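Ticket reopened. Same input as before:
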Amino acid sequence: MSLLDAKDLTMRFGGLVSVANFNAAIEPGEIVGLIGPNGAGKSTVFNMVCGFYKPTQGRVFFDGKDITGMKPNNIVEMGLTRVFQNGRLFKKMNVIENMLVGRQRHFKASLLDSILRTPTYQQNEKLAYEKSINLLEKLDLINYIHEEAGKLPFGIQRKLEVARAMSTKPKMLLLDEPATGLNVEESNDMIHFITQLRDEFNITILLIEHSMRVVMSICPRIIVIDHGETIAEGNPDEIRENQKVFEAYLGVDDNVEN
Amino acid sequence: MTISSFFQFVVLGLSLGAMYALISIGYTIIYGIIKLINLAHGDFFMLAGFTAMWAAIAYGVPLALALILGLSFTIAVVLIVNRFIYRPLRAYKMAAFTSTFAVSMVIQASVIIFMTARAKGFPHPAFLDTPIKIGNIVIPMVTPFIIVIALLLFAILTFLVNNTKIGTAMRAVSQDMEMVTLMGVDVERVIAFAFALSVAYAGAGAILWGMRYPAFDPFIGVVTGLKGFIGAVIGGIGSIPGAMVGGFVLGFLEIMLIGFFPEYTNIRDIFSYVLMILFLLLRPGGIFNVKVREEKV
Amino acid sequence: MENKNKARNNFLTIVAVIIVIGALYLFQNSSIDRYYIRILQYWGIYVIFGASFQLLYGYTGLLSLGHAGLIAVGSYTVAILTLEPSVKAISYLLRPPSPLIANVQIPFFPALILAGIFSAFFGLLVATPALRLGGDYLAMVTLGFAEVIRLLFVNLPALFNGSMGLRSIPQSANLVITWLIAILCVFVLKRLETSNYGRNLLAINEDEIGAEALGISVFKYKVSSFVISSFFAGIGGGLMASMLGTIDPNTFKSTLTNAAITIVVLGGMRSMTGVIISSGIYTIMSEYLRVVESPIVLGSFKFPGIPGARVLIFGFMLLFIILFMRNGILGDKEFSWDWLFSLFKRRDRKPSIVETKGGEQ
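Engineering reply: fixed in the latest deploy. New output:
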């Protein structure tokens, strides 16, 4: 059974169709790329899948359950976590604190526990620290542990944001342009980082990315949308040779990597 | 209740509503543009009315001139406050919000110190007191006067917002500030204009209020400002037609409450408050079902 | 932090509290002017008002203008529940006391807890509708609440004795009790703020959408922090009723809300040390500025008092702090023993004054 199953997702804003009949079935362990020219509706798909928009039509199933119209935080509870394109780190908090907020859904201590600092609270807090440190170590971010998130180099901030999403222990990640604004070296680093996520955590990923190079090197399967409609689906070679995709991108400069 | 007294209440309700609506507009305009509830809005209402009144009764300035003086003074104050307080704080939401509250404290206290803490009667032309008799009901001239003036002001506002350059810019800024900045619109000028406009309308409301009711005091802005806010919520915050309708609806319902249940006169403020809570719970977008502008995700 | 230091610091904290309470006890039983005792007691109560407001304002990032209303709920709860039935019978002049309350009298401490609970309940009633649309409307909705609650007091004379208010409230909360409770409130609030709960509030404050995308129920956290803040405002209100002995609807004008806001803005958004210092400053300022508001006679000149001067000064002070020293006195720095000791050590290794998150309390 597919882990994420989007059926006929449609979003209309006023009279404008932003996404029409989007369908995708993603199997556990897959990394799927979602690409398309600017304004094609990629982010809108994400917003519908993880509860920030209520789709005008269609349904989303995750792990066999209908999650259409559920609140974003409840969808995270189900094991589906999203990383934003424009960076939503808690900039004034340090790295470990950012990670700990991500751990919240596994924190099982009441307010009374935290006031009295009961053993339950202490165990939870200790476990949260250990798990977060563990994750930071694995993802090679441990050197930054006490730094203020907003002051980290940009490439590290993007990584931290993914790491923070991982600390919710998701079954699946939605990554929205993780390599935007990164230079070639940093984006190579990001490619490595995402592959590492898949290998070490066996996590399912749906990835929006502008940079063809990044998508082609990570995703065995790619979905292309344009003007809200799915125009192609297949492996990188198929996509490269697809006439429709070529046309959609025609005139669009593919040097977004700066 | 007879038909004629019902009619009388309708007129009274609409005139009260017209004054509320004049206040509601300011909340909606400012919130629509910079997502800030100006907590000092009610005090600007009070300031405009109070300075006009004070000029007339303490310095003997002729009424027409006093009204112009009160309005221009208050507009000048809001422009200064915007330029030197709200604008530098715009990037810091909590600080900006709190500063509007501090401004409210300063305005109230200044009026008490430099004018008076006592309630005073507003001077007004005698013709407004003339009773009008229609059949067997009597209403003072001032009530239809308020309705007519307010409708005129609403017509001007509608024209201004829809048919002038600055109005178009205002609507554009409320849609997407970044985009508009890129297009070369001077956003700060638009915001300053919006503040001036919001205070001008509230000030007009205050002057009408002064003509209608026997007394005006430095604290009147608190509850009246709150009523204006409730009107804006009822109409749907962010919508200018919503603010007008919402203000009218609130005033009308308040007077109807008093008309049908005179024993509840004392608690009409509670009634209005509960009405707002009900709207927030059941129809947060107000009558016009305004969608709160979604933050881009 | 090393374990040895932690044990030492906790010990020092306990000793310090005992010394402070002991000193207050001596004060209370000395022949010192009652006026000064009253000021100290006000200080303790303002600490609670400030600390409870700080959770909401400094952590969650919400502005409420209803603190006075919530304080009022606490005050009236304690007043009604602790007044002797015989006193009620003679002091309810407008209407005889409602049978609901006529024969009720409970001891001070349970009444104080109930004061907190009632305030929390009203906080829940207000916050739920107001926070459904984010936090922007909260200020106005709570301002309305503060007005409405006063109208209720006036218009339900059988319960609240209308505008006459309540007199002869047993003055159970003396200086020592007030400060003991204030310290307890500060302790509980600080524990919450330094736990995962406070961390999540800060995350919401920084980026709501980011927090929500990590599974945090933003609405629930906002409402719960309002309710907790209300609870402590109610406790502070209860103590105030007991200190004053007499309350009426006008006791709870917006001045109390102004006080809570000023204390937090002045002291520092997230510093409990700051709140304690700034409540002291506020208490003293508002006491001594009374002078400005009453007439002064200098020789043959008689200067009329300037009513409203205090509000003007506090208003300008608030604006000044917001514009030019946004972190207040301490920002989010907290007093810590390690900092204190470092002052006496050689200057080469200087830990900062901060021991913000995860610090002992």
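The interface with chain A takes residues 296-297 of chain B (CB under 8 Å). DSSP finds eleven helices and two strands in chain B. Please confirm and we'll close it.
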